[in-house]
C-alpha cells in the first residue's frame, strides 16, 4: 500500500469514528465501562490497557504489560502531588481512569468520553447501567494510552478538543509530528532512539547480514522504516524484510518461515513488533524447523515473561531485548506491596488482578509476590509534567482558582508542558519541540540459570554516550558448543590474506578473489599493485622493498664455475712461467714472445671474469665484468690477428720478392696492438657515460616473488662485442688464408682451430644469455664461453710450444723447421730470411 495512504488512513478513521461518536452516540461499540474516579479541583484522565482485545474489544484476559499496576501508579503519583506544597498549593487533583484494552475503537471512544464537550452524556449513552457521581469538570489532560496504534487516534482527538495526551509507552516516530499532533506528548523516547540502539548493537558484533520482521501498525511500520534507513547508511544488509500480520493464517506464517530458510547465512533477526505478532512468529519458527539457531533482537514492544510462559524460552535463549531505561521507584514499590492491606482506594480491577497475580506466581500475598513490570517511572513523569505545567499556568493567571479553571487557556497549558523541566528518577526530564522526551535504553539478555530462563541486564545505550555493553556476561545460548561464542551473521567468506571481497549473485553476499601476486589488499575490496621492486608483506597490507637474491656460492653449478677458471688461472700462470723459462727456445721465439705474453694476460682475464659475474650485481661489478670481457677478447684476438696477419704477409711477400715485409718486427706489432687497445679504451669510456651497464631484475618477479639482479649490458658492450667480433672474423679470415702454410713452420692451423671454436662458442652463448630465464642461467652461459675461450686458446696455442720447449732440443727443433721449409713450396728468399723474421732477431 502507498505510504501516503497508510498515513492518511488513521486520520480518516478518526474523523469517521468521531462523527459517529458525536452524532450517532457510538451505539455499535462494545467497551469496558468500569471507571476509577476521584474528584478534585482539576481532573486528570487516564487510559490504560487493563484487558486484551482478542476477537472483540476487551474480551481477553489481563495484559502482560500489566495495566493495573500502571493504574495504581497514576493514582499514587496524583496522591503524591496532592501532598506536596511546592507545586499546586491548595489545589487537589482528581482522576478519571478508563481501560482501552489495546483497542483502537475503545481508545477513541474513551478519549471522546473523557475530553469531549458532552463527556458525561457520551459516556452514559454507551454505559447506561453504570452509576457514578456526576461532574462537570473538564479533564485537564490524559495519561495514556499504552501503544502507538491506539495513540494515533487519541492524539488526533486530543488535537480536536485541545486536551494534552501524555503517552507512557507509545514510541512510534509517526507521532513525532507537532503539526499533525500538537497536543500529543510522551514520556518515553521515540523509536528513532531505540533504532539507534539496535543498529549500534548490530555494529558492535559486526552483524551485517540480518533479517527484519515488523508488525503492521504504526509502531512496527515506522520502526522498520527507521531501521532500513539507518542500516543502509551503516552498510548493514537486510536480507529479508517481512511484515507480520496481526492475525496471520497458517499459510502466511509458513511463507514467512520459508523466507527465513532461504537465507541460510542470516543468524540474527530483528523483530520490531508488538506482542501478538511476535509470539506468532516464534511459534512459526518453532514449528518450521529452521535447522539453525536464530538470535533474536527484540524491540520494546514484546519480549517479557510471556515468551517464557508460552514455552519459547529455548528458542529465544541468548536473544537480546531492548527496553526503556526505567529505574525502580522504591517508594511506589513499597506502596504497592502494602496496597492489599491498606485502606487506600484501589481501582475496580485491582482485586481481580490481585487474585490473578497471586495464582500465577504461587504466592500468598502481594507483599511476597514479585513486582509486575510496570515501568512506573514513565507514568509518574507524565503526572508530574501535567502538574508542573498546571502550576505554571495557574501562576500566570492572577485570578481565583475557580476563575482560572473556567478560563484555563489550553494553548498556554500546552506551551507550559513544552517548557516543563524537572529532575526525575531516570534523569532530567523535559519535552522537545515535538513533545518527545529523550532517554536511555537497556539491553536484556535471556539467560538460563539453574535450569530456568531469566532476563538479565547486560548493558545500556545512551544517545549521547552510545553503547555500553558487558560482552563477557552475555549468553548466546545454543549458537555453538561454547555459549560465549558470538553468533556470526554475515554473508561473506572469510578471505585469506591476499584476497579481496567480491559480490556474489545472492543479495548482499560476498566471496573471495585472489589478487595478483604483487598486489596488496586495501579495505578488503581493492587490489593495489606494488611498485616495480616492492613486494607485499606476509598479510598483504603494505608493500615492502624486495631484498635482492644473489647467486649462492655453494650451488653445484657455481662450484664448477669457480673450479674451472681457478684451474685455468693456475694453468695460465704455469704457462707464463714455462714461457719465461724457455724464452730462448726456437719454438718460443718463433711465436713472438711479446704477443704471446699479452695473449696470456688476455687468457688470464678470461678466467678472472667469471668471478666478477658471480659477484652481486652492482654498477661496479657490472662495469668491471664488461671491461674484463672486452679486454680479454681484445688481448687474445688482437694478438692472434697480428700473428696470423704477420704470417700471411711474410709468406705472401716471399712468393713475390726477397724483400722483408714492413711492420713485422716486435716493436711494430706491439705498436699496432697498442692502437687496438686504445680504440677499445675509447669505446669503453664513451659508452660508460652514454649507456653504462647496470643491474636489472630478471623478468620473473611475479612468478617467484623475489628480486634476482643480473648485469644488463648497455650499448657500449654491444659496441665492444662488435669490435671484438670483427677481430675474431678477421682472425678467421687470415687463418683460412694461411691454411696451406707448412705446419712445422708456424701455428696458423692451431690459430684457425682456436678462432673457429671461439666463434662458434660465442655465437651460441649470446642468444642463450639474452633469453636466459634466471640469473644463474645467464651467468653460467657467458662464463662457460669465457672459460672455453681461455682453455681453447691455452691448449691450442701454448701447449704445443711448451711441449716442444721441454722435450725437444733446440737443434732438433731448428733442424725440423729447416727440413720442413726446405721441402715446402716457399720462395727461397723468404725461407732464408724467415728465421730472423720469426724469431724477431
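Q: What amino acid sequence fits the structure above?
A:
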Amino acid at each position: 500500500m502507498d505510504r501516503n495512504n497508510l498515513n492518511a488512513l488513521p486520520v480518516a478513521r478518526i474523523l469517521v469514528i468521531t462523527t459517529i461518536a458525536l452524532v450517532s452516540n457510538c451505539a455499535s461499540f462494545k467497551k469496558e465501562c468500569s471507571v476509577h474516579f476521584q474528584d478534585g479541583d482539576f481532573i486528570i484522565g487516564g487510559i490504560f490497557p487493563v484487558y486484551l482485545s482478542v476477537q472483540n474489544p476487551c474480551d481477553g484476559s489481563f495484559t502482560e504489560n500489566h495495566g493495573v499496576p500502571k493504574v495504581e501508579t497514576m493514582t499514587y503519583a496524583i496522591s503524591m502531588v496532592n501532598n506536596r506544597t511546592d507545586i499546586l498549593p491548595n489545589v487537589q487533583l482528581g482522576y478519571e481512569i478508563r481501560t482501552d484494552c489495546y483497542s483502537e475503537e475503545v481508545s477513541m471512544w474513551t478519549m471522546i468520553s473523557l475530553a469531549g464537550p458532552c463527556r458525561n452524556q457520551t459516556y452514559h449513552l454507551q454505559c447506561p447501567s453504570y452509576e457514578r457521581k456526576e461532574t462537570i469538570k473538564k479533564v485537564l489532560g490524559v495519561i495514556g494510552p499504552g501503544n502507538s496504534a491506539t495513540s494515533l487516534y487519541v492524539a488526533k482527538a486530543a488535537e480536536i478538543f485541545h486536551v494534552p495526551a501524555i503517552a507512557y509507552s507509545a514510541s512510534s516516530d509517526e507521532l513525532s509530528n507537532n503539526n499533525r499532533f500538537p497536543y500529543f506528548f510522551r514520556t518515553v523516547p521515540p523509536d528513532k532512539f531505540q533504532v539507534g540502539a539496535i543498529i549500534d548493537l548490530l555494529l558492535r558484533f559486526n552483524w551485517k547480514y540480518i533479517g527484519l520482521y515488523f508488525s503492521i501498525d504504526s509502531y512496527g511500520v515506522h520502526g522498520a522504516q527507521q531501521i532500513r534507513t539507518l542500516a543502509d547508511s551503516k552498510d548493514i544488509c537486510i536480507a529479508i524484510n517481512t511484515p507480520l500480520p496481526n492475525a496471520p493464517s497458517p499459510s502466511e506464517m509458513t511463507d514467512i518461515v520459508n523466507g527465513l530458510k532461504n537465507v541460510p547465512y542470516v543468524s540474527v533477526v530483528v523483530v520490531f513488533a508488538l506482542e501478538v505478532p511476535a509470539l506468532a512468529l516464534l511459534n512459526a519458527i518453532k514449528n518450521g524447523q529452521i535447522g539453525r539457531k536464530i538470535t533474536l533482537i527484540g524491540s520494546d514492544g514484546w519480549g517479557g515473561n510471556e515468551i517464557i510462559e508460552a514455552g519459547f524460552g529455548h528458542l529465544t535463549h541468548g536473544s537480546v531485548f531492548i527496553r526503556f531505561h526505567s529505574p525502580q521507584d522504591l517508594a511506589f514499590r513499597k506502596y504497592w506491596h502494602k496496597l492489599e492491606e491498606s485502606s487506600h482506594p484501589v481501582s475496580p480491577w485491582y482485586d481481580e488482578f490481585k487474585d490473578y497475580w497471586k495464582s500465577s506466581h504461587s504466592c500468598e500475598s502481594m507483599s511476597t509476590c514479585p513486582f509486575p513490570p510496570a515501568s512506573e517511572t514513565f507514568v509518574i513523569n507524565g503526572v508530574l509534567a501535567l502538574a508542573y505545567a498546571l502550576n505554571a499556568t495557574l501562576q500566570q493567571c492572577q485570578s481565583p482558582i475557580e476563575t482560572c479553571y473556567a478560563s484555563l487557556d489550553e494553548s498556554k497549558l500546552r506551551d507550559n508542558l513544552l517548557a516543563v523541566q524537572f529532575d526525575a528518577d531516570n534523569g532530567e526530564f523535559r519535552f522537545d519541540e515535538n513533545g518527545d522526551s529523550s532517554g536511555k535504553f537497556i539491553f536484556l539478555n535471556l539467560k538460563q540459570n539453574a535450569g530456568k530462563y531469566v532476563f538479565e541486564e547486560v548493558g545500556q545505550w545512551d544517545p549521547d554516550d552510545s553503547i555500553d555493553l558487558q560482552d563477557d556476561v552475555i549468553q548466546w545460548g545454543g549458537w555453538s558448543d561454547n555459549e560465549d561464542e558470538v553468533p556470526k551473521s554475515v554473508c561473506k567468506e572469510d578471505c585469506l590474506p591476499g584476497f579481496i571481497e567480491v559480490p556474489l549473485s545472492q543479495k548482499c553476499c560476498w566471496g573471495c578473489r585472489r589478487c595478483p601476486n604483487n598486489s596488496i589488499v586495501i579495505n578488503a575490496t581493492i587490489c593495489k599493485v606494488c611498485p616495480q621492486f616492492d613486494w607485499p608483506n606476509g598479510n598483504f597490507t603494505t608493500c615492502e622493498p624486495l631484498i635482492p637474491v644473489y647467486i649462492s656460492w655453494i650451488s653445484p653449478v657455481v662450484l664448477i664455475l669457480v673450479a674451472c677458471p681457478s684451474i685455468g688461472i693456475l694453468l695460465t700462470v704455469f704457462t707464463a712461467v714455462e714461457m719465461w723459462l724457455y724464452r730462448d727456445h726456437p719454438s718460443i721465439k718463433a711465436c713472438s714472445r711479446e704477443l704471446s705474453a699479452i695473449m696470456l694476460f688476455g687468457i688470464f682475464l678470461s678466467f678472472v671474469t667469471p668471478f666478477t659475474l658471480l659477484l652481486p650485481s652492482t654498477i661496479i661489478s657490472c662495469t668491471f665484468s664488461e671491461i674484463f670481457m672486452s679486454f680479454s677478447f681484445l688481448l687474445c684476438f688482437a694478438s692472434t690477428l697480428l700473428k696470423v696477419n704477420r704470417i700471411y704477409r711474410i709468406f705472401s711477400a716471399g712468393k713475390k720478392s726477397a724483400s722483408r715485409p714492413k711492420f713485422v718486427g716486435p716493436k711494430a706489432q706491439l705498436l699496432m696492438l697498442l692502437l687496438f687497445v686504445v680504440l677499445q679504451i675509447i669505446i669503453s669510456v664513451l659508452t660508460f657515460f652514454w649507456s653504462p651497464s647496470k643491474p636489472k631484475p630478471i623478468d620473473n618477479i611475479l612468478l617467484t616473488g623475489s628480486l634476482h639482479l643480473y648485469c644488463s649490458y648497455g650499448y657500449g658492450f654491444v659496441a665492444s662485442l662488435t669490435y671484438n667480433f670483427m677481430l675474431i672474423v678477421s682472425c678467421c679470415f687470415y687463418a683460412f688464408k694461411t691454411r696451406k702454410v707448412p705446419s712445422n713452420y708456424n701455428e696458423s692451423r692451431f690459430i684457425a682451430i682456436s678462432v673457429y671454436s671461439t666463434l662458434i662458442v660465442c655465437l651460441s652463448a649470446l642468444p642463450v644469455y639474452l633469453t636466459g630465464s634466471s640469473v644463474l642461467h645467464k651467468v653460467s652461459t657467458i662464463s662457460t664461453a669465457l672459460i672455453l675461450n681461455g682453455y681453447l686458446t691455452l691448449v691450442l696455442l701454448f701447449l704445443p710450444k711448451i711441449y716442444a720447449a721441454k722435450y725437444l732440443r733446440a737443434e732438433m727443433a731448428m733442424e725440423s723447421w729447416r727440413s720442413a721449409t726446405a721441402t715446402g713450396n716457399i720462395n727461397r728468399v723468404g725461407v732464408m730470411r724467415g728465421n730472423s723474421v720469426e724469431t724477431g732477431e
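Q: And what stands out in the fold?
A: Residues 1-31, 817-841 have pLDDT under 50 and may be disordered.
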